[in-house]
Design a protein that fits this description.
219 residues, alpha+beta, Phosphorylase Kinase, domain 1, six-stranded mixed sheet, 7 helices, 48% helix
Amino acid sequence: MFILKRQDVEISTIQHPKRDQHVPILHYQGQTFRLISVFKPNQQEEARALWRELTDQRGKACVLLEESEQYSVWGKIRLEQFSTDTSHQQKSEILTLASILLLQAVYMDIEEFLGSRQAGLFEKDIVEVLQHGQFPHLSSSNAVRELLTINPLQANQMLIWQERYVIILLQELHRLAKAYFGNTNFAYQVEERLQDMPEGERSLFMSWLNQSSMSKLWH
């Protein structure tokens, strides 16, 4: 939608309606935007890729703010509906999609290198993880089996998990994969596993991953 400089906009903060924190808000020509993601000065291409993906492919109203010390992407919101902020949902969609793709990649590797019997045991282990974690809409074995085989990039209705579910899945996936393979080589190929994701979304996930507690497990 817009590529702007710092002097073009006003930035303030407002109180988050559900958390004890203040959230940065960007104002431009009577419109209001909430921060989605921040990029370092050497990540201009990643910032532009995410901005283009959200605006061109997803039809979202977004601002790319170019500053000397950083780049940032902001999504349009209405303050009266702040508690249902769409930019937060966009991030949740991307984190969920990436974690499902990583799960499927590990499952396919187990089937290819260790055989169908081990893949079947891994499927049962994942069912237990998802049921124990009370993941939404994944209480049955059939639902989990579908999750392992569908193409989430073309799914009619995409699952959206809260961040805590993504963290649980990535922790348990790493634990199980290490047990099956006997090493952690699988954890060094994250970006390669996500090549089917749009570049901007992949960059956002990698940025989140590198700043999260998962960075020690998934490199």
